[in-house]
Amino acid sequence: MLKHWMGKDVFADILISQTSSSVGTDFTNAVLDRVVFDGADLQGAIFKNAILSGSTFVNANLADINFEDVLIGYVDLQKLCRNTTISEDARLALGCKS
Fold first, then answer.
1. How far apart are CA 70 and CA 42, in angstroms?
2. What is the residue-level pLDDT of the chain in tens, covering all 98 positions?
3. CA 93, CA 38: separation in Å to the nearest integer?
């Protein structure tokens, strides 16, 4: 189980399985390049200061996520903001438009 990736660089195309749970995982300062989080349960995960270039979150559970100071491209951000499980606070931190 992934529980602490703080400060880790993840440069490969990685798939976080739809059956895997990464609830509460700390991705602080991680470089998460092209990671596929589609369908994953990421409730309560921390992405503080993480780089999420090219990563996807289709149908992922993003309840109670910390996206403080995350670096993400505009197109990736638009896709991420479509996820209905993101809280209002996380939407504000990300800069999602209403």
1. 16
2. 444 444 444 443 444 544 556 788 899 999 988 888 888 899 999 999 999 999 999 999 999 999 999 999 999 999 999 999 999 999 999 999 86
3. 21
Contacts of 76 (CB under 8 A, 6+ apart): 52, 53, 54, 55, 56
Torsion of CA 44, 75, 50, 32, to 10 degrees: 90
**Which DSSP category does 86 fall into?**
S
CA distance 78 to 72: 10
The verdict on pTM exceeding 0.85 is: no
**Residue at 36: amino acid letter:** V
